[in-house]
Design brief:
This protein is 49% helix and 17% strand. By secondary structure, the protein is of the alpha/beta class.
């Protein structure tokens, strides 16, 4: 069997090659538990061999009495290894409703902000094989489709950084054996035994599931991987449609031919809408699936008159559907202002755009660079 460090190194080398990434600095999320400490050990070894800088980030949520002690334990171990370490603090609100999700979001937000501020593009997490299986079952319980059941990706983007999960195919027991062999102690989080959390209940159920049905953790993770391949293909088809059929305008705004859009399979239509609305509206997350379904149904009824979703206005105009970011100021556009704008940006003489987009252009006050993009062709006009 290939040593864990060799498997880990091959994973990171493959990511670097596939994405033409230059790993100068790699950061890892480390809590003090066995999984993340094993990640830190593997990363430290990998970076030492390749002359890469390793950084470890520990988020203290201040939710447990042992949190301070565990963060300091990680700090001491990283000092011993000669690895840069930072503790990021989050203080929970007094209202603890949904604290697990709030803590998770805060953890990623703090680490993402640190990475952006320090020029780090890749953040490693210790998600492993059992985490993948648990995530699959949690999303199955919520009634998720292909996207949800494809669970976690080995590499995904979050804001301006990438989340890298090189241990998704690794059994957590192997990680504990690695630490034991190296004489490294780890902390046990008592919340891992709390049945208030669905993930904990599923984790306790997994051995019984395997015993009674033969459905193993690896089988569940393999199913998630297979669905991720399907998801990847669907996303490629949707991206190809956007590249060839969607017109982009400064504002931001986009427009689509109804005929071309309605010829696509509904799954592709929903993905196109999801991506365009998220990008145009400037949101971190796409609209909810049920809202996209309602919009898709309305678009196919022939009498679509417009609606808002995800910070965008979706309106019919000149035999096209337009997705335009909602304007906050609602600045009116006079004929004289528009004529002056067109004189400075002659490309707009050749097209007719909705009044809502004119308002958005006026809100930008005509400053800087105005970009008009038709499908794969871009024409840039600069003021002055």
């Amino acid at each position: 069997m290939m040593p864990a460090e060799d498997i880990f190194a091959r994973k990171l080398d493959a990511v670097a090659a596939d994405n033409q990434a230059n790993f100068r600095v790699l950061a890892a999320a480390v809590s003090g538990g066995a999984d993340s400490l094993a990640l830190a050990w593997l990363l430290n070894s990998y970076c030492h061999q390749r002359g890469i800088k390793a950084v470890v980030l520990t988020v203290n949520h201040h939710l447990r009495a042992a949190a301070d002690k565990e963060a300091e334990m990680v700090a001491a171990l990283m000092k011993k290894w000669g690895t840069e370490h930072h503790i990021l603090n989050w203080y929970p609100p007094k209202e603890l409703t949904g604290v697990e999700e709030k803590a998770r979001e805060a953890r990623y937000r703090l680490m993402e902000e640190w990475c952006v501020q320090n020029g780090v593009s890749y953040l490693l997490t210790a998600h492993h094989l059992r985490d993948q299986a648990e995530t699959f079952l949690m999303r199955l319980e919520r009634g998720s489709g292909v996207d949800g059941l494809s669970a976690m990706a080995g590499l995904s983007r979050r804001g301006k950084i990438f989340i890298l999960r090189p241990l998704l195919e690794t059994d957590p027991q192997d990680l504990r054996q690695l630490l034991s062999a190296e004489g490294i102690s780890w902390a046990e989080d008592e919340s891992n035994d709390c049945d208030d959390f669905l993930r904990v209940r599923i984790r306790k159920f997994l051995p019984e599931l395997e015993q009674k049905t033969g459905i193993t953790v690896r089988r569940l993770a393999d199913a998630a991987f297979a669905l991720r391949q399907t998801r990847s293909y669907l996303e490629e088809v949707a991206a190809a449609f956007i590249r060839s059929r969607v017109r982009r305008y400064e504002g931001p705004a986009v427009s689509i031919s109804p005929q071309a859009f309605l010829k696509q399979h509904r799954e592709i239509r929903l993905r196109v809408l999801s991506r365009l609305i998220r990008e145009t509206g400037g949101r971190d997350y796409p609209p909810e699936y049920k809202e996209l379904l309602r919009l898709d149904t309305a678009l196919g009824q022939g009498d679509f008159a417009g609606r808002t979703l995800g910070g965008c206005e979706i309106v019919p105009f000149m035999k096209r559907w337009w997705i335009i970011r909602e304007s906050k100021e609602k600045r009116p556009v006079s004929r004289s202002w528009w004529e002056e704008f067109v004189n400075r940006h002659p490309a707009y003489k050749q097209i007719v755009i909705p009044y809502k987009l004119k308002c958005l252009l006026a809100e930008k006050n005509n400053g800087g660079e105005t970009l008009l993009c038709f499908e794969n062709k871009q024409t840039i006009y600069r003021q002055g």
